[in-house]
Amino acid sequence: MSAWLDQLDDRGYARTHRLLSDGEAADLAGAFDDDQRYRSRVQMGRYRFGEGDYAYFAYPLPGPVQRLREELYPPLAEVANAWAERLGGAERWPAELEGLLARCRDAGQDRPTPLVLRYGPGGYNTLHQDLYGDVAFPLQVVIGLTEPGADYTGGEFVLTEQRPRSQSRATALVLERGEGIVFPNARRPVCGTRGAYQVTHRHGASEVRSGRRVALGVIFHDAR
């Protein structure tokens, strides 16, 4: 947990070790058109979210997605609770994923949120936050399913940070296949001269210049 917390404090994001094998990444990317895996699909251009498509998995989640959700959540819950304590808030997050999902169900949020996003040439994702309801865990993960430079060009993961009385700062990151990037869902604490204060984050994807970019989003809270 400490390594991720240090990176998140310093940069606003943290890179993980390799989370998916090439075979797992290829399976998830290649099954995007298999409707039986998903509860719903969204064409981004229809809603001015960007250009491309994404699909939310149905329960039960595919094995690798379920494994990642269960394994990544506990250390991230430690980070989230450290953030809450730093800001002086009373809210604390359950130690295990099932505790979070039970909290979601109590709030009427029972639809799974892990998703696959696919972009072709000219595809992009506008800046946004993945909240989905009153219960919104403050961290999430994006994992590359295709190889930059080989399968596509462009399409960097973009994270913006808005500090009080400042212009937004943008960071563009190349998302390697199988690698994860941990980032704030919406806000995180930053230490200032008078103590901790909140900064606001949004994320998206820059334009794909060629090929096809596919990514897995691991969101821990469920949706209404």
Task: Summarize the structure in words.
The chain has 224 residues and is an alpha+beta fold. It has one domain (2-218): Sandwich (Jelly Rolls), CATH 2.60.120. Helix content is 24%, strand content 36%. It contains 4 helices and 15 strands. The protein has helices at residues 2-11, 22-30, 63-87, 97-106; strands at residues 14-18, 38-43, 50-51, 53-57, 115-119, 124-128, 139-144, 152-154, 157-162, 169-173, 179-184, 187-192, 195-205, 208-211, 213-218. The strands form 3 sheets. The chain has a 7-stranded antiparallel sheet with strand order 1-11-7-15-5-4-2. Strands 3, 6, 9, 10, 12 and 13 form a 6-stranded antiparallel sheet that branches. It has a two-stranded antiparallel ribbon with strand order 8-14. A hairpin with a 2-residue loop joins strand 12 and strand 13 (195-205). The longest helix is centred in the middle third of the chain and has 25 residues, at 63-87.
Short description:
With 224 residues, the protein is of the alpha+beta class. It has 4 helices and 15 strands.
